[in-house]
Amino acid sequence: MTVHHPTLDDARRLDAEDPLAPLRDRFVPTLPGRIYLDGHSLGRPPAAAQDTARALITTEWAHDLVNSWFSRWMRLQHDIGDLLGRHFLGAAPGQVVVTDSTGVNLYKLARAAVPARPERRLIVCDRGIFPTDRYILEGVAAERGLELRLVAFDEITGPTPDAVARVVDERTALVCLSHVDYRSGAIADMAAINAVARSAGALTLWDLCHSAGAVPVELDACGADLAVGCTYKYLSGGPGAPAFAYVRRPLQDRLTQPIWGWFGHRDQFAMPQGYDPAPGIRRFLVGTPPVLSLALVEDGCRLLAEPGIAALRAKSQALTGLLIELYDAWLAPLGVRLAGPREAALRGGHVAFAHPAAERFGKALEAEEVIVDVRPPDRLRFGLAPATTSFTEVWTAADRFRGIAAQMS
Ligand SMILES: *Cc1c(COP(=O)(O)O)cnc(C)c1O
């Protein structure tokens, strides 16, 4: 019996009907024939970024020189933060800054949060969270003499509110979780988990690296306290682009972050003796930002804001849905396992597969111009960035994967 599955013509028709298809031409093209399905690791460059970088060097830097700090550059961390907040994070202005890396921001916010619950000694985190988050929280716990409880939440469902409720109590100062699991793509119920944490009196800190630009996030509305995330994945900010940090407004003046730099000083240019943190979100800044890289974050953000996150999410679900249909027809019978949620509402922007030969599959796919993410020992992740991925590419990649898996397994 053959399972009915979408044909190449079906995929072409989906592309023809795709309202987001023209967006692909607004990115710098890949090499001809290359199918790039790793946009959840590094987003492709917006074409506008080339002009932004050139203008920044030839005009703002070369001509206006140091005056550019005051005419524009000093505002960028705030302005781009507000832009991200409005279009992708559900955050009202004055709560997001673009600065430092995700890891450094996680450190600053976690380290600022725990003294706000001085009688509590526990940080709760997912054992399977992205390693840098775990290491940084280990460091914060060691520095503050706290206990870090690493909980083995289910990888396929992500941390559920019930599972979080079982491990968070009156001793918990901070709960740190990923919204979208970087392994499985599972989406956590952020609103319900925030409610669980709040009723226990704990603060929440979310890692949004795999959410920003891929799935809708409503930080203000769902009661999140703190969040961090990177801009170089779905948001196409560029390699090593600075990350963002969100601090809920009522918390801002009650938290002091641990890196006391002049950009966070109340009176930065008076340069007085003694650190005195600025009011508001500015106190979470540290030092001079990488302006070239920072400025490019705006291009990715503005480009993706044109269709908006709802349209991006709808296409993302259609892309991952197509891949899962083809998986059912072709790959499951060859012993490949779906290593993430099946339901559209529960899966993020990438699809994870497991097979003992994953590393060999990844190399063979690359030899056939399909770039996916390989995670030893046995995972392959297909990151289907909705702004840059076509249905035909997904179909072709699944077809090549089928050929390789049939040959090798
Ligand atoms: C990519 C990623 C990071 C990266 O952190 P950097 O500080 O930019 O190296 C952190 N957390 C998650 C969940 C990620 O996916």
Walk me through this protein's architecture.
The mean pLDDT is 97. 39% of the residues lie in helices and 13% in strands. The longest helix has 23 residues, at 67-89. A 7-stranded mixed sheet has the order 2-8-7-6-5-3-4, sandwiched between helices. Strands 9-10-13-12 form a 4-stranded antiparallel sheet, covered by helices on one side. Helix 6 (161-167) runs parallel beside helix 7 (190-199). It is globular. It has 409 residues and is of the alpha/beta class. Residues 101-103, 130, 132-133, 178, 182, 207, 209-210, 230, 243 line the site of pyridoxal-5'-phosphate. The site of pyridoxal-5'-phosphate has 13 residues, from helix 4 and helix 5.
Give the SSE map:
Layout: H1 8-16, E1 35-36, H2 48-61, H3 67-89, E2 96-98, H4 102-113, E3 122-126, H5 131-144, E4 147-151, H6 161-167, E5 172-178, H7 190-199, E6 203-207, E7 226-229, E8 244-247, H8 249-252, H9 291-305, H10 309-331, E9 337-338, E10 350-354, H11 358-367, E11 370-371, E12 373-375, E13 379-383, H12 391-408
Parallel strand pairs: 1-11, 3-4, 3-5, 5-6, 6-7
Antiparallel strand pairs: 2-8, 7-8, 9-10, 10-13, 12-13
Bound molecules: pyridoxal-5'-phosphate.
Pyridoxal-5'-phosphate binds next to helix 4 and helix 5.
